[in-house]
Every structure is written in structure tokens, then in C-alpha cells.
Write a structure and sequence with these properties.
Blueprint: H1 3-25, H2 28-83, H3 90-171, H4 176-186, E1 194-198, E2 201-202, H5 211-219, E3 232-234
Parallel strand pairs: 1-3
Antiparallel strand pairs: 1-2
This protein binds zinc ion (ZN).
């Protein structure tokens, strides 16, 4: 392989490496993984939220039960006063009865709240294992996908490493000037600043190469460009 042909091979290696890198970035498994990751995070959030709501609900129940006990104690006291026969005046009795009525309403209200809190607690206790199950299932799926995705990524990366090694071997055998010329013109030609002559045709632009250019290529390899597209010309092998 002449130096120019090695440079041409380098161009092919670079193009393949770019293609692989693109593939790596847009790997379907990565998008699938991200989606599953989001779903798993959402499931975990549901578990935490359910647990927190359950804790709050239990606190509320304790609170309500305590208040209820207080009211029941007060009710007992009033009952004792009302029917204890301690000789209250009518006005005092009326006031006590009014108070008893108010306590009764408060108690009913508390009991209603307690009942509703207990129903909520029951529903949360039922929802929690389901939320856990869902999370565990998604998490296991995520781990499995992570493993298979890693295998695919590993395969692409090892192919990339192979190309990188070949690239290094090639660049060591090509002169700085030619490499610089190649690098400089890469962007302008979408990674293909070199063209081969195949059956007297420039592989870059498909235009026939003149006899003068062909002769020039023999005399000045590495310094002959296509008259039409301007690519650096490489003789076919
Ligand atoms: Zn051309």
C-alpha cells in the first residue's frame, strides 16, 4: 500500500468510526432504557408517596382517637353533673345541657372524620403492596435491559477500539503534510476529501479524469486534485 492508499484507508476508517459513534448515540436500547428508567422512578415515587400518606393517615387517626377520648371524658363529667343530683339551678342545668349538646355534635363530627380516615388507611394499605410489586417488576426489567444493552454497547465499543488501533497504525505511516491536508479538507467534503480513480472516473464526483490529471497523479502523488470536485486523488490499487 502506498502512503496515499494508506491515507485513503484512513478516510474509510474514520467514516466507519463516525458511523459507529452515531449508532452508539442513537441505539434503540438507550431510548428504551431511558423510558423504563422514568417508569421505574415514577413507580418508586408512588411507593414513597403511598407510604407517606399512610403514615400521615395513621397520625391523623391517633389524633382523632385522642380527641374523641377527651370528649368522652368531658361527656362523662357533664352526665355526672346533670344526673348526680347535686342540686343545680335551672339556669345551670340549661347551660350544662347546652354544653352536652355541643359535645355530642363535636363527637359525631369526630367519629365521621375517624371513619373516613380509617377507610383511607385501608385503601392505602391495599394499594401499598401493589405499588411495591409494580416497582419491583419494573426494576427487574430495568436491570435485565441494562445488561443486554451493555452487551450491545460493549460490542460497538470494541469495534470502535479496533478501528482506533488501525487508525493509529495508519497515521504512524503517513507523513504529517498529507495528514494535515486530509484533516484540513475533511469538513469541506463531509469526511471524504479523498477520491479514488476507478476506470478513469473520480469516485468523488463521477466525472471522467483527463489524461493530464492522470499523468500528474503518477508524477505528483499526494498533490493531484480532481479538476471537477477538487478532491485529492488516489490511484486505484
Ligand atoms: Zn472529482
Amino acid at each position: 500500500m502506498t502512503e496515499l492508499q494508506k491515507l485513503y484507508r484512513l478516510q474509510q476508517v474514520d467514516l466507519q468510526a463516525e458511523q459507529l459513534q452515531k449508532e452508539l448515540k442513537t441505539l434503540p436500547v438507550i431510548a428504551a432504557f431511558q423510558q423504563l428508567q422514568n417508569e421505574t422512578a415514577a413507580a418508586k415515587k408512588t411507593v414513597t408517596e403511598t407510604e407517606n400518606r399512610l403514615k400521615d393517615c395513621e397520625k391523623l387517626i391517633k389524633h382523632l382517637e385522642f380527641d374523641l377520648q377527651q370528649i368522652e371524658a368531658e361527656q362523662k363529667d357533664i352526665q355526672a353533673e346533670l344526673y348526680g343530683g347535686s342540686g343545680h339551678k335551672a339556669k345551670e342545668l340549661a347551660s350544662l345541657e347546652k354544653k352536652a349538646g355541643k359535645l355530642g355534635r363535636e363527637k359525631a363530627e369526630l367519629e365521621e372524620k375517624l371513619l373516613s380516615a380509617m377507610e383511607t388507611k385501608e385503601a392505602l394499605e391495599q394499594a401499598l403492596p401493589e405499588a411495591w410489586e409494580k416497582y419491583k417488576k419494573l426494576h427487574a426489567e430495568l436491570l435485565a435491559l441494562h445488561k443486554s444493552g451493555n452487551e450491545k454497547i460493549h460490542e460497538l465499543k470494541s469495534r470502535l477500539a479496533g478501528l482506533q488501533a488501525e487508525r493509529e497504525a495508519l497515521t504512524a505511516q503517513i507523513s504529517e503534510n498529507l495528514l494535515a491536508e486530509y484533516k484540513k479538507r475533511r469538513a469541506q467534503y463531509q469526511g471524504k476529501p479523498l477520491a479514488r480513480i476507478e476506470n478513469d472516473i473520480c469516485s468523488g464526483c463521477r466525472v471522467v479524469i483527463s489524461f493530464t490529471v492522470k499523468r500528474s497523479l503518477q508524477q505528483f502523488p499526494g498533490n493531484t486534485y480532481c479538476e471537477n470536485c477538487g478532491r485529492l486523488l488516489v490511484p486505484s490499487e
